Amino acid sequence: MSTHLAIEDHALIGNTATGALVDRSGTINWLCLPRFDAPAVFAGILGTREHGTWRVCPTGAGPADVATDRSYLGESLTVRHRWVTAEGAIDVTDFMPASDDDGTISAQVIRIVEGITGAVEMTSQLLPRPGYGAEIPQLALMPSAGATQVSAQAGNGDIYWLEGPVEHTLRDGSACSTFTITEGQRIAFVLSHQSAGSPRPLSQDPYTACISASRYWQLWADQCTYRGPYRALVIRTLLTLRAMCHPGGGIVAAPTTSLPEALGEARNWDYRFTWLRDASMTVSTLVRYGYLQEARNWIGWLLRTVGDDPENLQIMYGLGGERDLKEAELDWLPGYADSRPVRLGNAAADQLQLDVYGELAIALLDVRRAGVAATPEVDRLVITLGDQLEHRWNREDEGLWEVRGPRRHFVHSKVMCWVFYDRAISLLQHRSGDQAARLERWGRLREEIHADVLARGFDEQRNTFTQFYGGRELDAALLLLPQVGFLPPDDKRIIGTVEAVQRELSTPGGFVLRYPTHSTPDENVDGLTGHEGAFLTCSYWLCDALVLIGRRDEATELFERLRATSNDLGLSAEEWDPRAKRQLGNFPQALTHLAQADTAWRLEAARLQLAYRAAGGLAFPASALPHQQQTRELDLAAEV
Ligand SMILES: OC[C@H]1O[C@H](O[C@H]2O[C@H](CO)[C@@H](O)[C@H](O)[C@H]2O)[C@H](O)[C@@H](O)[C@@H]1O
After folding, report:
1. 401 C-alpha vs ligand 1 centroid, how far in Å?
2. What is the pTM for the complete model shown?
């Protein structure tokens, strides 16, 4: 049986160490325990229900039958599906317990079934399939007081435990139960993971755990400093980002692998790792909204992971700092909607992507400006990276889009090298006298890179920057040039580039492709076959660029259309198929969510700025900002 509801038909629940996807039919069809990058026990989303699923729904519901309604409980990651049937109404509430006071996170999923009206017969059908659906574990019923317990032991010794106060029947590798719930009655199922050789997670009261989890997320949401008109959207998007911030400080790009960028095609990638680019940008976004603890955790991770061996800098790592992310294909999984291959690991880990230096430096400066004190360890890392980049910046690379075609002199990469020196000089200034010579050298290099980009990355005739030196194609990453301060937003080369991207990379609905995809090998910059959807992050970057060049109304209108691509729960994947009007790619994706949050913030900053000027203000005062942090970008905007 196919489990292919649309990507946007899923909800994310999580505990920050891992996350699960629950679809509208009441099926959990993606779950890796205990960590985001552990082998999935439910991989049904990449195949069929036989690759691992757990469904709780009214008895007799067909595979395509879905709940009447769904929503998150307040500002939490607890999702509730309501089923209204001829016999009555039932709520199924799904969540993962949040961390204890001592920071322990239990690897559990809890599902509470509650009668609202009438009496409804329900069925729970658990098909655990460890190893990404490859294995049928050994199932056994265990005697227990007041509850039945099912154990499912995998070949590697891991055990999945299911507890619930109903009788289970074991059949063909599944554990089923059928029970009737009447108005006011509730029961809870708890699924726990026990790693081989470790003790079984402690039982906890599922109802108390539900209250604690909701409170945990609500308290976190309450710290948000944003008070503007998009508050609900901003909070949901920040919660989604927070769900991807592992307690060890690493941040995954998305909790999934291989949800396709084009249905039925091969652009399927594993995102359950920490990209320096995506993680740095996530941190900048969180800091912008007042969240510093995640930034401190990330710096700790960075110093342990990158600081440990900065000479061999990678562009991405495992959550635990792993360097070896070798790519492999899981040939037993047919893929989401037959989109093969399903990939594990990511060969992009071995690429040279020069932009990551710039994104790191931006995040470190944002964190510093938000009030996190400088440390000698961070300074040392910046110095090592800066010295290293002196010998690398003029190389060709794979760029931020991680092309699998030949390396090029990508303009965005070069600009981000300029950004690195620009922000690194600010980071190290006033620190210690013996840096003066280095900072002078870096200052000269900053000017040299700037001049190099203007001379080789700008097409005078078409009045636009190009994707790479000597190329004619465009790249939506060029929309970031005004945002990072490479040139002022009112520079005609910036305005020309924004307009060229709009002209050449827009989809019919006005969203943006990241670059042109071609099918002939010699034109094919990314080295891949097939095409892809509109890239949501780039579309939000277009809004940002429009705000910065003074076209705020147009930006607001585009933002409204973009936010409508999020699902009913406010979640977004990486891309959007403008024809089918469906989300594409890994889900939910940090890059999309942080871009959405950044644009909401920028629109609000621009609105406040205009209001302040209209009221006769001469300059934009720090106190009017919708957050506690001063960014270079706002300094620039204030001067315009
Ligand atoms: O499209 C080709 C590339 O797609 C993935 O990379 C994209 O996702 C990354 C994580 O969000 C992001 O950092 C990058 O900018 C995106 O292009 C994939 O991970 C790559 O392996 C693949 O080449």
Report:
1. 6
2. 0.95
